[in-house]
Design goal:
The protein has about 400 residues and is of the alpha+beta class. The protein contains five helices and 13 strands. The chain is rod-shaped.
């Protein structure tokens, strides 16, 4: 006997599939996301999740860099203030090179200089960002160091030929030793100082005499009288060869600025911030130490023209250091700004890629859901029609 085979199997399968698809589309349209769960597209879901993590990390890194930039802004502003104070101190030192000043005048100059040095230290020590001290030298980074040097800053011409100082040379390896008192001051080292040489009349014979001012202590020592063409030694580990002078050169002078050796700093103790999304993508910031002691201007002595001259040399070196620090800080700020721009571009691209994978294309989804709804209605109608036919056939056997 022939059997009747149900004709609803295929429409039912299609209906179940369409209902599942419509259910997914409704969830997607409600959330605005294509990837509502890993089951929708496992590989795309994994990639989109990874991209979302990267975009979030880039945003956090940008915040780090912005904080670092804000910190450098604080440090830069403080360095400008310190440069202004150093400039004021130098002006006082220039004023101090004047033998017409009375003791009262010099006392007033010294009091003003002392107040400025105190203000200098207060400013340098108080600069911080979120409690982190910026200019105390804790984050100066690795430094190559600077060897000791002797620079002739003034050298009068002699009547015959040549200059008061013919040559300055280190007397030995101790010239690079910055430890302890200086040679001529009870020790064997070399410290920041000024050597002033004057041609004097020694009982009818021209002679040269050196006066050395220690920048750190303000102490002074004086050499013996040295004949024309001779050599002055025994101070700051230098030998000073003199020119050939005579009585017509009396009153002429020379100045030598001694800068002590600054040892290298091999510890990389710079500030570090995570500036990118990847592990190890960091930026180091170097911030100088600029207290008066670190710049060797803690003792600005204006008690005489000679000590004021020494102070000018001290302050010139300090101003050079401050200017160099500002330039270094400015370069770091430019690098931080570039990093922020780079992070912004990367974050935009990563976010766009993540959106392409995870977000729903509403136009396409609407079209698909409309078509699937029509198919579902059509399949429902087919099933209903098949059920009606089946009931009609069965009625023939009733």
């Amino acid at each position: 006997m022939a059997s009747i085979t149900p004709s609803n199997a295929q429409p039912l399968d299609q209906l179940y599939s369409l209902q599942n698809t419509l259910s997914t589309l409704v969830a997607q349209e409600a959330s605005g996301k294509r990837l509502t769960s890993p089951s929708v597209d496992p590989s795309a879901y994994a990639i989109a999740t990874s991209l979302a993590v990267a975009a979030s990390a880039l945003n956090a890194a940008t915040q780090n860099v912005q904080n670092a930039f804000n910190a450098t802004n604080v440090a830069s502003g403080a360095l400008q203030q310190l440069s202004g104070i150093a400039s004021q101190l130098r002006n006082l030192a220039v004023t101090g090179v004047n033998d017409f000043l009375s003791p009262t005048d010099r006392a007033a100059l010294q009091a003003q200089a002392n107040a400025l040095v105190q203000q200098f230290n207060t400013t340098a020590q108080s600069v911080n960002f979120n409690g982190v001290q910026l200019l105390n030298g804790s984050f100066a980074g690795a430094q190559a160091g600077t060897p000791a040097a002797a620079t002739v800053t003034n050298n009068d011409l002699l009547t015959g030929s040549g200059n008061v100082v013919a040559q300055v040379a280190a007397s030995g390896p101790s010239f690079q030793n910055a430890t302890g008192p200086a040679q001529g001051f009870g020790g064997s080292g070399t410290t920041n100082s000024t050597i002033a040489i004057s041609i004097v009349n020694n009982n009818g014979v021209a002679a040269a005499q050196a006066t050395v001012v220690d920048s750190a202590t303000g102490g002074q020592v004086q050499s013996g009288l040295v004949a024309s063409g001779g050599t002055i030694g025994g101070f700051e580990n230098v030998n000073i060869a003199l020119g050939n002078f005579n009585l017509s050169d009396v009153g002429k002078t020379a100045r030598i600025q001694i800068a002590q050796n600054v040892p290298a700093n091999t510890q990389n103790n710079a500030l570090t911030v995570q500036s990118g999304a990847a592990e190890g993508n960091t930026t180091n910031l170097v911030l100088p130490g600029v207290s008066s002691s670190q710049l060797a201007i803690s003792n600005v002595n204006l008690s005489s023209s000679l000590t004021s001259t020494n102070a000018i040399g001290q302050l010139d070196n300090a101003i050079v250091t401050l200017n160099s620090s500002q330039a270094t800080l400015g370069a770091q700020q430019a690098a931080l700004q570039n990093q922020v721009a780079s992070n912004d571009v990367n974050q935009l691209n990563v976010t766009a890629a993540q959106s392409n994978l995870a977000d729903l294309n509403y136009g396409q989804a609407t079209t698909t859901s409309t078509l699937d709804l029509l198919r579902s209605q059509l399949n429902t109608a087919v099933i209903a029609h098949n059920n009606t036919l089946a009931q009609s056939v069965l009625g023939l056997f009733a």
